[in-house]
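I am still getting used to backbone structure tokens and would like to learn alongside you. To get us started, please write out a protein record for me. Start from the sequence, derive the backbone structure tokens from it, and show both lines together. Once you have written the record down, we can walk along the chain together:
***
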Amino acid sequence: MSGTSLDGIDCAVVEFTFKNNKWNYDFVLGKTIPYTIDWINKLQNAIHLNETDLHLLNIDYTYMLAETLSSFLLENNLNDLDFISSHGHTVLHQPENGITLQIGNLPIITDLVSIPFVCDFRVQDVLLGGQGAPLVPIGDRLLFSEFDYCLNLGGFSNISFEENGNRIAFDICPINTLLNHFSQKIGKDYDDEGKLAEQGTVNQDLFDKLNHLEFYHQKGPKSLGIEQVNELFLPLINRYKISDHDILATLVEHMAFQISSVIKNKKSRLLITGGGAYNRYLINRIQSYLSNTQVELGSKELIEFKEAIIFAFLGVLRITNKINVLSSVTGASKDHCSGIIFN
């Protein structure tokens, strides 16, 4: 799994069992393998590439991914895997134009790692008129049903929950894509525990303007990509001549407000995972808006590897030919079994 926060490639080894009509998982081990500075720059710049250069980047990334996976397999003596399930790295996501591209999902990967490879989970959904996202909710429904809401805080925040017998899910707002951007202006890779934001003061006018962005008035299914960060959020934020600490404080307040506003059942259990769960200040601000909600942080493994665990699960469902994408969350014309298998 590789996400928009560009912290690295999440590798997780997971065993799944189906017993008494319920799926269970056992997390064996996991590791995040950081990207080099060169690859961070390449992936950040990918959105500006033409079709030919994107194809070349896709090939380079696939070779790099194969090398990374091969090293991980060797390092952990993993010689009995059924298959590798991979999300790839999203460089283009424009579902309204029928486009989504995750690099690292080329057929050559199977030759390079010599293990069956399940990948490209988003494309089919977009072809069926869906957003191609979010895909995690099927895992939330089948693996984490004890929680009323499952919230992931990664490059973007997304949530899933049951409503009238349907799984509902959508992206809420940017998280680390924005927080990391302004932390880096202060000279930090990220805002450790939210300490930088905590030093700032909320700018009420910016807070109000962010909350009035058109995206927040759209009904789901809806999803966010780096395109919206560059086209909607950054131009607005950059109009304000305030300190980066104040920007971070305002962003955290905005994020907490938007997250709390989608949780209609305040007396509920909320599971929070993703790298943003380590942002103590953000979690505190979310909790302040949800005083009657049982806010629970996942275990370290769940915080760091939940998406990788669920993409492994999507692979299991694809291999066994079961539905792994829900139209109620993506807006596709039907539930379907998505993903390509390279043997």
